[in-house]
Amino acid sequence: MLFPVLQKRASATMALALLIPAVGLAQFRPAEGTPEGLIRLFVRAMYANDVATYERLSIPDARRSLLVRGGSVNQARVVEIDQDPSSIQIKIKREFQYQGKLAQPGPSGEYPVGTTVVYMVAHRGGPMMVTLARRSDGWKVDLRWWLAMVEMASAKQPRAGGADWPVRALLTSMLAMDRKQAQRFIMPGGSMDLLFAGAPSQREPSGHLEALAAEMPLVEVGPGEFYEMPSRRIVEGQQRADVKTLVGQFGSVEMPFIVRRIGNEWKVEVEPYFVLMMR
Question: What is the pTM of this model?
């Protein structure tokens, strides 16, 4: 099957038994030009352990091979999808966006190059998030969040000095309703009232949200990639040593962050993140 490493993080994403797999694409040919058709082809390729199709349908990444090591085939699942493609459940979780704003298709029905969209996909298991991006040669799967999960799973311990560290620490402190601790991780002068806007009256007792913060895959995005912050401002990724735009997947919710280096530490710009965490 494809992506054996991701199965170790199934509790945080999906029963990545979805990623289990067999044979070619002769019988199963949905419209690859549509996001839903691409997703169905991609899921089938995963069950089929079809590396060539996996690479054709995804955005190239130097780390892409991490997801296909030790693959095998699940013939039964391939046959099931061939007979009933609708058994793959697909639901939009973040609408089509272009440069951080709601995207509109052109006269031909196609979205502009650079449009992105996030789906929740499930098949015989829990859901997983699938990010698609419109490229010049059509829709492609953006693997970066899956790769981030693989890298987290293989890390021996969290990177305390990394730019992602204060993001996780901040969200965990917020969920614990600990304002004093949260203040350690934000930019100097940041508004605590804004940070805790929309906070619940008491801490959520199950620990589920804290687990989502700890397991959230975070990806640094660059120039030409735009995201809407909780405050509704639009930010673009940057290539600077002292500023990073990070985008996480907090369960099924996409969360962007701006982090800045202050001395030897990274600090998070204040946004009303409870607006997203409590969805």
Answer: 0.88
